[in-house]
Q: What sequence folds into this?
């Protein structure tokens, strides 16, 4: 984009195919964003089989990672309409789920790739890796992905497979005196608060109404603010046949100059640490879409 700060906003680089389990996907990494220790992969799974990253074998990472599985239907965010299985730990404890779920993989923990066992509609997959690049170290085992015991409530990895609880996001989220309503549903993940061993913060919400998201002055006007660490906003259109189409328009400003930017395509916006920026204003959308907020530094986040 044009302007002094336009390089912080980029249209998401969706590609078709590329991996047999993705209909459309993109990768956002250091070469794309220019910041360290964050690698984001998103895709819509439309086939059964292993969601392979670097290898089909059991492996470990030398960085933390969270895998998210969400519904692709914004009118039905509580059901995946799919069956996903993950195997975690040296014994391959197996966990199976059919609702939106976050799978936390702390560094050094052996695991197999997630496997889509059943699929009645597309599933949105989001992987947040605390690394500048994805890499895997094979972990020697005689186990097959589906040979481990079923993980019970006593499994040490039970807390690593966390159902994502959605709620209606009305104005109360911003305070009772504010009638800013996204019209959609909202969920969030804080690894430090949930004690999963992966310290990132991620929020996922659907945008259905015109509203403004962010801090406000005592007279309720949106006001610029900054953070002590990096913040990423992913604006995701949900048309898998045309993923670049966002379905609406969002606007926000950067810097002390309040340089205004508007987006109407699926995009990522980086707000670097200590960079003043405004609240985000969403115009009335033509079609609902998704906002994903990511704070890679997790509990170090300060508003």
A:
């Amino acid at each position: 984009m044009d302007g002094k700060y336009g390089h912080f906003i980029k249209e998401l680089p969706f590609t078709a195919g590329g991996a047999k389990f993705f209909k459309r996907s993109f990768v956002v990494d250091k070469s794309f964003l220019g910041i360290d220790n964050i690698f984001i992969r998103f895709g819509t799974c439309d086939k059964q089989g292993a969601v392979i990253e670097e290898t089909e074998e059991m492996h470990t990472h030398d960085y933390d990672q969270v895998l998210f599985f969400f519904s692709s239907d914004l009118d039905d965010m509580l059901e995946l309409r799919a069956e996903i299985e993950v195997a975690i730990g040296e014994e391959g404890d197996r966990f199976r789920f059919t609702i939106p779920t976050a799978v936390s993989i702390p560094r050094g923990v052996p695991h197999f790739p997630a496997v889509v066992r059943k699929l009645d509609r597309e599933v949105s997959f989001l992987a947040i890796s605390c690394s500048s690049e994805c890499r895997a170290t094979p972990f020697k085992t005689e186990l097959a992905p589906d040979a481990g015991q079923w993980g019970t409530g006593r499994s040490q990895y039970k807390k690593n497979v966390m159902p994502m609880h959605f709620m209606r996001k009305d104005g109360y989220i911003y305070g009772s005196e504010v009638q800013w309503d996204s019209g959609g549903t909202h969920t969030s993940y804080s690894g430090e608060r949930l004690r999963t061993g992966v310290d990132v913060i991620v929020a996922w919400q659907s945008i259905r109404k015109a509203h403004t998201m962010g801090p406000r002055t005592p007279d309720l006007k949106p006001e610029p603010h900054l953070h002590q660490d990096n913040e990423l906003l992913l604006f995701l259109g949900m048309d898998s046949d045309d993923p670049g189409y966002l379905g609406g328009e969002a606007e926000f400003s950067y810097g002390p100059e309040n340089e205004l930017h508007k987006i109407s395509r699926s995009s990522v916006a980086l707000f670097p640490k200590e960079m003043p920026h405004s609240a985000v204003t969403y115009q009335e959308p033509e079609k609902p879409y998704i906002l994903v907020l990511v704070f890679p530094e997790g509990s170090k986040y300060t508003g």
Residues 6-139+153-298 form a domain with the Jelly Rolls fold (CATH 2.60.120.10). The helical segments are 30-33, 191-194. The CA atoms of residues 79 and 99 lie 5 Å apart. The longest helix spans residues 30-33.
